Amino acid sequence: MKTYSVAILGATGMVGQHYIRMLQNHPWFRIKTLTGKDSVGRKYVEAVRGEAPEPPKEVAEMEVQPTDPKHVDADFVFSCLPTEAAREAEPRFAEAGFPVFSDAAAFRMEEDVPLIVPEVNPDHLHLVKAQRKNRGWGGFIVTTPNCTTVGLVLPLHPINRQLGVKRVTATTLQAVSGAGYPGVASLSILGNVIPYISGEERKVETETAKILGRFDGGRIAFDDVDVLATCTRVPTIDGHMESLVFETEKKTDKETVANLLAEYVSLPQELNLPTAPRKPIIVRPEEDRPQTRIDVDAGSVPGMSVTVGRIRVVENKVRLISLSHNLIRGAAGGTILTAELAHHFGLLEG
Amino acid sequence: MKTYSVAILGATGMVGQHYIRMLQNHPWFRIKTLTGKDSVGRKYVEAVRGEAPEPPKEVAEMEVQPTDPKHVDADFVFSCLPTEAAREAEPRFAEAGFPVFSDAAAFRMEEDVPLIVPEVNPDHLHLVKAQRKNRGWGGFIVTTPNCTTVGLVLPLHPINRQLGVKRVTATTLQAVSGAGYPGVASLSILGNVIPYISGEERKVETETAKILGRFDGGRIAFDDVDVLATCTRVPTIDGHMESLVFETEKKTDKETVANLLAEYVSLPQELNLPTAPRKPIIVRPEEDRPQTRIDVDAGSVPGMSVTVGRIRVVENKVRLISLSHNLIRGAAGGTILTAELAHHFGLLEG
Amino acid sequence: MKTYSVAILGATGMVGQHYIRMLQNHPWFRIKTLTGKDSVGRKYVEAVRGEAPEPPKEVAEMEVQPTDPKHVDADFVFSCLPTEAAREAEPRFAEAGFPVFSDAAAFRMEEDVPLIVPEVNPDHLHLVKAQRKNRGWGGFIVTTPNCTTVGLVLPLHPINRQLGVKRVTATTLQAVSGAGYPGVASLSILGNVIPYISGEERKVETETAKILGRFDGGRIAFDDVDVLATCTRVPTIDGHMESLVFETEKKTDKETVANLLAEYVSLPQELNLPTAPRKPIIVRPEEDRPQTRIDVDAGSVPGMSVTVGRIRVVENKVRLISLSHNLIRGAAGGTILTAELAHHFGLLEG
Amino acid sequence: MKTYSVAILGATGMVGQHYIRMLQNHPWFRIKTLTGKDSVGRKYVEAVRGEAPEPPKEVAEMEVQPTDPKHVDADFVFSCLPTEAAREAEPRFAEAGFPVFSDAAAFRMEEDVPLIVPEVNPDHLHLVKAQRKNRGWGGFIVTTPNCTTVGLVLPLHPINRQLGVKRVTATTLQAVSGAGYPGVASLSILGNVIPYISGEERKVETETAKILGRFDGGRIAFDDVDVLATCTRVPTIDGHMESLVFETEKKTDKETVANLLAEYVSLPQELNLPTAPRKPIIVRPEEDRPQTRIDVDAGSVPGMSVTVGRIRVVENKVRLISLSHNLIRGAAGGTILTAELAHHFGLLEG
After folding, report:
1. Which ipTM did the prediction report?
2. Which residues of chain D neighbour A187 with C-beta distances below 8 Å?
3. D52 near A188, Cβ under 8 Å?
C-alpha cells in the first residue's frame, strides 16, 4: 500500500523520542522531517534532550528543521509542541494544507476540533469537515487528550455506555516523565509526593465530557458526566496511576464491571490498526495490581493498553485502579493510532 | 506532680522507638519496662531493629522483658504489639490491673473498647467504666486508630460537626514506615506504586464511624458517615498523604472549610496537655502543599499536627489533601496524648 | 542438533526467574525440572517470589520438585541455590552423575572446582577432569563468580593480558536486586547508601585472582593481582556499577585502554555461542556514561555486555567505570554461557 | 561582646538558606543584608527557591538587594554566589573594604587567597595580609573548599600528619542537593547513578594539596599528596559519601587510624567557636555505617561533623568511608566557622 511521509513538530523532547521509536518500523508512516527550536540546523542525535535510547541511524543524522510549513516536506504532521508553540504553529500548518495530529493542549477544547481516543470516539474525527469549512483550511487539526485523561476515559467508556456513570472522582499518582525533561527537580520529588500539577485537574475534568460526547455530524454534545480530579506527582519514572471512584446509574457488581472492561474492543481492534493493542484494557485479578513499574508496558503493543485492577463494587459505587503509559498511550502512541484511524476514514488522502 | 512509671509492650519495633523518643523528657511519664519477644534478656540497644536514632543511655541499657504482666512493673502500659500478639497479651494486662493504651488493631472495634483521637472523641474514654464492669478487669484497654484513619478523621471532625459530611472517598499515598521493619521490600517499591495495603481500607472505613460516633454514657452510637477508601503504598519514608473528597450537607465554600480546619482546637489544647500540638490541623494556602517529605514533621510538637492543603469546593463537594505522620500522630504520639487525657480524667489513679 | 534437558535448582528466586526467561527460546537447552524448598508440590507460577514477569505457560504449570537427584530428570542442572543449600545439594547431584553449573558461592574457591567467566578463562573448564577423579564423581561442579567480580574481571582481563595490572581498588555501587527478594528493606535504602554488603568484598578480592590465574592442565596458579574492594548498596533496581582504579605495568594511555576494551572478543564470540554478546565490553565515549538505569541492558544479548566508560589515564594509573547486569551477566546469563562452552568442549556428553 | 552585621551574597539559593538557618541564633553575627539577582526588590520569603524551611520572620521580610557593595551595609559578607558571579562580584566587595568569606570556586586556587578548613589549616588565614598588600584592597577574600574536598581532607589531615599519606583514591557518592535547585532532573537520577559531576574531580584533586600545604608566613607550599577522584551522583537528598583508599608511609593498623580520627580536635574546638562541633570526626564502629540518610546530621552542631566508618587496614593500605553534609560542613557551616576563626585572629576588626 501507499506509505505516507510524516514530520514530527517538536521532535527533540521526550514525546518526540517515543514517536521516533514507534514509527521506526511502521508499515504506513515514514519519518521525513523533524523540527525543533533551539536545535535547528543540528543533527537530531545531538539535539535530543534527556536520556533517550539511541535513535535509528537514518533518523539520528537528520538535520533539525524550523517548525515552519515552508521547511516541512511531508504528507502530514505529528505535533508534540509545547502548548504555546502549538497555538501559534499548528494553524499555520493546517492552513498550509497539512493534516496535523497533535497531543498538545492548545486546541483540544475548540468547538470544531476533534479530541480523540481512538477506541472511544472514532466518529468525532469527521468533525474536521466542519473545521476545514469554518476556517477555510486545506489541512486540519486533530487533537488527543492529556495523558491523564486517557487513563480515565478508556475504562469509563464501556461502563458509561452500558451502565451510565456519574459522580466520578479521580486521584492520580503521576510519573515524573509526564513533566518532560528536565521537568521535576530531583530535590523536589525524591522520597516525596507533590499533590499538585499545574492545569492538570481542569484538563481531565473538561476533556472527559467532550470525548464521551455525542457527535451528530455537525457538532459534539458533551456528555453530562461530572468529574472531580486531584492530581499528584510521585517518584516513579513512567506511568500514571489513577484511583477512580464513580457511581453507576444501573445496578451492577464486580464481575459485570470486570467483564465490560476485559471484553472491551472497538474500531481500532476491529480494523487491526498497526498500533492498536489487541486489548485496550487489561484487567488484573490480583489484589495488588496494577503496579506502576511492573505493568506500565503491558499489552500486545507495549504501553498502548490501560491496565485496570482492584475493582470493588459496593451497591452502585465502583472503585478501581487504572494505569496507563503517559508517553505512549497518553501521547505518541495514542496520536499515531489516531492518524491510523484517519487513514482508514480517508482523511489523509490529498 | 506525681509521675507515672510506664511499660512499653513490643518496644523493639519502629513505633516502640518513637515511644521512647517522645517519652524521653515527658513531664509525667517515665519508662520503667520494655518488653519484646525474640530479644528477651538482651539490652534494648542491641535488640532494636531498623535504623533508629540511638536511645538515651538509661533506656539503651534496659534488659528486654517478656510481654507478661508478671515481668512488668509499671503504673500503666503502652502497647505497640503486632495484632495477634496484642489480642493475646492485652487482656492479660488489663485483667492484671494495668491500664493499657494500645495502637494495635486487635480490640479497636469491640463494643466496650474506646477508640480515641483525643481531639475528636475524648469523652469516649469513659467507656472504660462499662468495659471494666463487663469484663471484671482491674485495668482496661483503650485503643487508638489505624494511622490512616487519623489523617482522615481529624480534618473531618470540625467539618462534620458544623456542616455534616457524607459520601467520603479517600485515596491514600502511604509511606513505607507504615509497614514496619523490614516491611516493604525495596525491590517492590523503588520507582513504583503498590495500590494495596492488606486490611487497611476496611479499617479506615469502620473506625471512622466509631470515632465520630456519639457516646451516651453507656455505649457508642456510630455516626452514619460512609467512607470508601483506596490505600496505596508509595516510595516515601514517613507520612501518609490522603486525597479526600466528600460532600457537605449544608452549603459551604472554600473559606469556610479552611477556617473550620485552621481554627480547630479541642480539649487537649484547652488542657495544654504535654503532647498536644497548639494546632491539631495546620492549613497551608500554597497550591502545592502539603508535601510528604517537607511537611510531615509540622507543628509545635513535631509530627502531631495534620497538615491540610489544596482545599477546593465545588457546590457542596469538598476536596482536600491531608498529611499526617504515621508513626507519631498515627501511632506513638496519638497514644501518649490519649494517656495524658486519661490522666486528666483520673483514669490512671489506682 | 541434540537438545539437552535441564533442571534449575532453587528456581523460585530472582535468579531462577532470569534462567527461565533466558532459556525460554534457547536452541540447545530445554527446561524439564524446577526445584524449590518451601514450595515443593505447588505450581511454579504460584511458588515464585517477587514481582516476576509471567513465565511461559509450560513452565508456569510445572510442579516444583524437591532439590534431590532422585526427583530430577535432566541431562544437567543449573543451580542458583542459596550458599548453604548449595553446599549440601550440589555434591549430591555431581555424585549422582549430573554436571552442575552453579552461581552459588559454596564451591567457587575449592582447588579442583572451575570458576568461570567464559571470555576470560574458558580453559579452566577442563579442571573438571581432575575434580571427577579426585572425588570419584560421575558428574561435576562448575561455578561462576559473584556478580560483582564479573564487572571487575571482564574489563581487567584484556588490560592485564597486554599491559599487566596491579594495585586494583574497586568501589562498587550495587543494586538492590543483588540481595534477592525480599532482600534489602525499603526503609533501609530509600534516599540512602549502605556502604557494606556482607562477605562481598572478600569474594571480589579472592575470586579475581583465581579467574585470572593460569591453568596448567592440572591445577590453577592464581594471578598475583591484588584487589581491594569497597562494596556499597545504592537505591537502584538492577545493575552493579564499579569505580575501578589500577596501575598498569607498561606505559599506556586512554586510547590504548579504550581500544583494548572495545575490541575485546574471546572464545564465546568466536564460537558464536547462543548467549554470547557480540561485544563482551561496550565502551561509551560520553563523559557521563555508563549510567545504571540506562545502560544495564546494553548489548546484543541484553544484560550480557559490560559497559565501560569514563576511562581516564594519568601516567600508568587507570580509572574507569564499569556497569554489569548482576542477575544476567552476573548470574543466570553468565552460567548459561558457561554451560554452552561446556557443550563445545564435549563436557555435557554422557 | 561586639556583634557583627553580615550580608549574604546570593542568599536565595540552597546554601543561602542554610546560612540563614545557621545564623538565626548566632552569638556574634547578625544578618543585615541579603542579595540576589532576578529577585532584587522582592521580599526574601518570596524570592527563595526550592523547598526551604520557612525563614525567621525578620529575615523573611527583608527586601532582596542587588549584589553590589553600594547596596550592602555590613561588617563583612558571606558569598554563596555561582562561580561566574563570584568571580565578578567578590573582588569588588574586597576592594570596597569588605572581608569576604566565600564558598564559591572562583578564587580558591589563587596564590594569595586562603582556602580554609578551620581544623586543618587555620594559619593559612594570615595569607590575607599578603593578599591585601598585593591587591591594594581594604577588605579580602577567604575561600572554603568544594563540598567534596571537605569530606576527604578532614579525615586525611590527622593521618597525614602522623603517618604520611600517599596514593589517595576517592570514589564519591554525592547527593542531589550538591547540584543546587533545580539541579539534577528527577528523570536523570531516580533509580540511577550518574558517574560524572562536571569539574568536581579536578577540584578535589587540586584543593587537597593546597589545604594540606605549609604556610611559611608568605606563601603556601602545596603538600605532595596525590589524589585521584571519581565523582558520582546518587539518588540521595543531602550528604556526600566518599570511599577513600590510600597508603601510609609509616606502618599502621586499624586501631591507630581509628584513634587518630576519633581523638582529632583542633583550634576551633580549643577556642570553643560557636559553630565548631565538639568532634570534627565521628568514628562509627559498626560494619555498615556511616549511612547517608541516617548519619548526615551527626554531631553536636548538626551537619558539622564528618562521620567515618568501615576502617580497614591491610599492610599500609587504608580504606574507609567518610560522610559529610555538603550544604553544612561542605558550604554554609564551614564558611561560618571560618569567619569565627577570622574573628579570633582579629581579621574582622576594621
Report:
1. 0.96
2. 14, 50-51, 176-177, 181-184, 237
3. no
